Amino acid sequence: MRSRAGRRSIRLPGYDTSTPGAYFVTICTHDRELLLGDVMNGRMAPSDFGNVVEATWSKIPNHFGNAECDALCLMPNHIHGILVLLTIDGRGTACRATIAQLGHPVPGSLATIIRSFKSASTRRINALRGTPGYPLWQRNYYEHIVRNEDQLQRIRSYIALNPARWSEDTENPARRPRRPRQTKAMNT
Asked: CA 96 to CA 117: how far, in whole Å?
């Protein structure tokens, strides 16, 4: 599925992400930059920027009354989190929002919440490092709709154990093999 300017969507076609339920998300920093902290002895030690990200994440329910933060794992160049959407109307009754039109997310939907989180954390971190307008996050994010309690428990466990597995993580630049530079002599 292609949307704006030829972008390929990774969203589940036709799924309304304002639907009540739990959503597992992964958001990577721009160019996988290692700026959210370091993993030491299997534990994450957040940097000042990482602390901003954690604080911004924890404030999501203050800005979106239909959202609860279930879990968060900060890693050096990405985050894993679970957001639970409650979608309630003014009387406390569950309701269903309309499906987003192309380029216009539904208020309170997962896309709107993630967009707001990324924007707020980027502004705060750029103010700290004196880089207005510099991207903090990659353009998109990964989402998974949590389908049942067993899956929710497995994802919570994955999130909690993530720092201990950093040395094996595909997002860890130290794990990626380096390609040897080719010179003209090697190409002839």
From this structure: 23
CATH topology of domain 18-177: Alpha-Beta Plaits (3.30.70)
pLDDT at 146: 94
Look at residue 88 and tell me whether its pLDDT is greater than 80: no
Specify the DSSP class assigned to residue 30: G
Cα separation, 161 vs 169, in Å, equals 11
Nearest Cα neighbor of 23 from 159, 149, 154, 143 is 143
What kind and span of H or E run contains 62?
A: helix 60-63
- What are the φ/ψ torsions at residue 149 (nearest 5 degrees)? -65, -40
Measure the N-to-C terminal CA separation of the chain; round to a whole number of Å: 42
Cα(14)–Cα(17) distance, rounded to whole angstroms? 9
Alpha-carbon distance 138 to 32, whole Å? Answer: 8
Reference 71, options 173, 168, 156; nearest CA is: 156
- DSSP string covering 115-133: HHHHHHHHHHHHHHHT-TT
Render pLDDT for 38-69 as a digit per residue (tens, 0 to 9).
Answer: 999 999 999 999 999 999 999 999 999 999 99
Report the C-alpha gap between 106 and 81 in whole angstroms: 21
Best CA proximity match to 162, nearest among 26, 58, 23: 26
